[in-house]
Sequence to fold (99 residues):
Amino acid sequence: MALGITREELDAWKAAVLRGEIAFLTHYWTDDRFPGMRTVTKAGCADLERLSDWCRQNGLNPAYIHRRDRYPHFDLIGEKQKEILIQEGLTAHIARFRL
Fold:
């Protein structure tokens, strides 16, 4: 469940993903497997080849792309999340979610 974002933000991310863009969505999140992590950034793209290439270019393993639904994405957490957000010029995500 995505917390801390609006329906419009989610819809805009979904539309960008379906257009084949690399799109980013940061939201609050908890998962018992990752104690201490409170946010995730989803890097999504419906073009799996493009998303896989993006992962490799950023030192990420494309095997961890979530492919099960209509909106394929790679979950970014922790330091790598912040590193990618800075690299992509998405400092507003960092400020908004106090990363």
Observations:
- The longest helix spans residues 7-18.
- Helices lie at 7-18, 48-57, 78-87, 91-96.
- The mean pLDDT is 94.
